[in-house]
Design brief:
Layout: E1 12-15, E2 18-21, H1 32-36, E3 39-49, E4 54-58, H2 60-73, H3 82-96, E5 102-110, E6 123-131, E7 143-151, H4 168-180, E8 185-189, E9 202-207, E10 210-213, H5 224-235, E11 241-243, H6 248-253, E12 256-261, E13 265-272, E14 275-276, H7 284-298, E15 308-310
Parallel strand pairs: 7-8, 7-13, 10-11
Antiparallel strand pairs: 1-2, 1-6, 3-4, 3-5, 4-15, 5-6, 9-10, 9-12, 12-13, 13-14
The structure holds pyridoxal-5'-phosphate.
Pyridoxal-5'-phosphate is lined by residues 43, 197, 200-202, 221, 223-226, 261-262.
Length: 312
Amino acid sequence: MKNKRYMNKERLIWLGGELIPVSEAKINVLSPTSQFGANVFEGIRCYWNNDMDQLYAFRLEDHFNRLLDSIKIFKMDANYTVEYLISVLKEVIIANNYKEDIAVRQTVFIDGLGGTWNSKGPVNMFVAPIAKSRKIYKEQNGLRCCISSWERINDNNLSPRAKVGANYINSRMAHLEATDNGYDTAIFLNKFGKVAEAPGSCIFIIRNGELITPPCTASVLESITRDTIMKIARNDLNISVIERDIDRTELYICDAAFLCGSAMEITPICSFDSYKINNSVNNNLVHKLFEEYDSVISGTNNKYLNWLTPIY
Ligand SMILES: Cc1ncc(COP(=O)(O)O)c(C=O)c1O
């Protein structure tokens, strides 16, 4: 087990309408979620604000709208509303009385005994919060990334737009290849040979003072963090942002690069394959973005309070 936090058997999770200790939450081994990865999910962050004595969930409605999109693409017999999804998330966090930064996994899955890979139901849901601190910029050394030999899934086979459990087998192959070969993680190219994303995050590079990221049609998840970064870069930091295809060799010669996502937040990259790029920890632009992002998620930036949902 990688992290001791996961060993806390007492933390409560919400499963099918009940609050139960995680050690007692069981799913049938023959359910389609267990056998075929037939589930869709969101990874949501909530950040504790000491001054306000409040826990803020970040861009909750956007996460749940994306979850409903995944449910629709994946043809699940579910009719959840955003309001209901928010209410169960709040219920389980309050039951655990979290007063620190947390991450929440909210998964909608195909349950039941008699199902197979094409079952549309019965649909069930679990919501599992866990303590997880936000990243601190100065502690980050930058990730050593390789270009994966595995191609990113695409919209005509297993759409990266839907956040489906089974998609992560593609992510798993790339990440394990990378770590087995001594890298921290991998960057996928898509079926057209252009840069797509990392196994669980999106990528930005900086060239000549401009922020560049692949478009949402380049085999990437429609990332909420990616969208946040584009908005704060354009609106608050006056940085030009371009969505366009990125070639592999542009990674090798860029001025700086970072990964982003609800889990990664903003994590600098220091090399691609054997090519060193500027140590991003010292890169001003990345640092500025990180600080602005931190103020937005913490609730200290008045402009973006509408992205925050108070839990208590
Ligand atoms: C494959 C993939 N890409 C990108 C992201 C980043 O998305 P978000 O910023 O919405 O968390 C994630 C994480 O959820 C992911 O799993």
